Amino acid sequence: MAAGAVALDRVTIAYPNGYEAVTAADLVVGEGEFVSLVGPTGCGKSTLLNAAAGLIAPASGEVRIFGAPLQGLNRQAGYLFQQDALMPWKNAADNVAIGLEAAGVPRADALARAQDWLTRVGLKNFGDRYPHQLSGGQKKRVAMAQMLIRDPKILLMDEPFGPLDAQTRQIMGNLLLDLWAADRKALIFVTHDLEEAIALSDRVVIMSSGPKARIIGDHRIDLPRPRNALDIRLDTRFHNIQQSIWAQLRAEVIKAYGDVA
Amino acid sequence: MIARPQLIALQILVAFALIGIWYVGSSVPIFGTYFLPKFFFSTPQDVFMRIVKMFSGTTIWKHIGITLTETMLAFVIGSLGGVVFGFWFARKPLVAAVFEPYIKMANALPRVVLAPIFMLWLGLGIWSKVALGFTLVFFIVFFNVYQGVKEVSPVVLANARMLGLNERQLFRHVYWPSALSWMFSSLHTSVGFALVGAVVGEYLGAAAGLGYLIHEAEGVFDVTGVFAGMVILAAFVLVVDAVVTQIEKRLLVWRPEATQKS
Q: Quick check: B232 and B66 in contact, CB under 8 A?
């Protein structure tokens, strides 16, 4: 098996109270590949992502990054959180610059590069704003710049656009595609939104409902790139793909809500 | 929201109403009696004249200076101690667990009880008052910093780690600003308590300071002197509080307006 950027080898994740969230997950994400992880709520997709980030250690199995077993935090990865993760006491420019400053880049250089990144995410004149002065979408843009400025080789995203409204989500999706296309990196994108996953990804991986969630499907999305996340949804091929994957996902969603449905 | 000039006008109106009642009660006989006898309540005009007289000399500035010095020392030393111990306890749960009952005991102790001991140990000079203020300020800052460090958002922390910050950098860029924001949210309270410590200390035994002035006047049933001292003290508090508000605005620019006002 090729090494890939991220390889999960029979990864099982259990919590100290005995709850087994994910069971024996196998997943290889190649370099430059955009993979979405889709599943019903509470199926452990974020848990799996955190294992790839080194934020939690698997109970058994192994996480390999470019072929090497992962120990501790994944230093080669950038992580985009679902919740607000910006430091509220730093303005946008300082928030973006912090990753470089931590790596020892002189502050003036770091700030200059932060300004470039703010421009790239469309926030040229927002450098001196504090997070509470920014909208949800703007905060996400800052968070993206903050992650990308360090030039990580792997990008991990945990429902990053979840809290945003539908239109902002699609615009952010397009921005993400543009940034990703500039220098294709391995990207794992967790979402519960199948349409979003298909519009953005090379591959859509389906997880079963938890506990003891497993990976139950792996679909290649052969829609042409570059894509426009807004327009692609109107494409007939998009609909065909969506229908075939949804049939599988639907069963799991119903299982997850089994008690209430 | 009411406009600022109107608000100030209303605030001044309240002062006039209170002083008016005091004036009428103490200076205008109603059915042949004074409702607020001069011996117990003095009169606004007497108190005013006394304050003018006090400020025409230079000794009053010496007293204010002493009280201010004690307040600032108690605040600075108490805050430093609170920050250091707050951090230490928050980062070392074992230490926090072991000392928890002792901290609670020490905090529950009425500070007035300690005042005579501090005087015995540190004399009648400013340091016994600083010590009293310290015991008040320390706990406020300690609890706030402890809380601030413990309640750092786990997401912000995880994000900072993923951005490559090491322990030292986490301290500087995450724990420290978070703790500081909690400490500043209690700035008004802790400065107030530093002042209380200073004045109560002076009141119980000193040779200078605003508390001493009030105590001295009380000793000879000089109610006018007591009220004059209280008015000066109140004005002093307003000035200190205004300065604190300015400092707070400077340091907490990143805070949303709503929480800044509350």
A: no
Q: Domain tally for chain B?
A: 2
Do B118 and B154 have their domain in common? yes
Nearest to B155 among A73, A85, A91 (CB): A85
Residue ranges making up the domain that contains B18:
1-41
The CA distance from B92 to B103, in Å, is 15
Q: Which two tokens stand for residue B188?
A: 């008004």
Q: Which amino acid is at B178?
A: S
Q: How many CB atoms lie within 10 A of CB B208?
A: 18
Parent domain of A247: 6-76+153-256
Residues A50 and A118 in one domain: no
In-domain check, residue A1: no
Closest listed residue to residue A66, CA positions, set A79, A57, A75? A75
Chain A contact for B163 (CB, 8 A cutoff): yes
User: ipTM greater than 0.90, yes or no?
Assistant: no
Q: How many domains does one find in chain A? A: 2
Distance from CA of A21 to the nearest CA of B (A): 20
Q: Give a yes or no: residue A183 inside a domain.
A: yes
pLDDT tens per residue across all 261 residues of chain A: 457 899 999 899 888 887 888 888 899 999 999 999 998 877 788 889 999 999 999 989 899 999 889 988 998 999 999 998 999 999 999 999 999 999 999 999 999 999 999 999 999 999 999 999 999 999 999 999 999 999 999 999 999 998 888 888 888 999 999 999 988 899 999 998 898 999 999 999 998 887 888 888 898 998 888 888 888 888 889 999 999 888 888 888 887 776 554
CATH of the domain at A251: 3.40.50.300
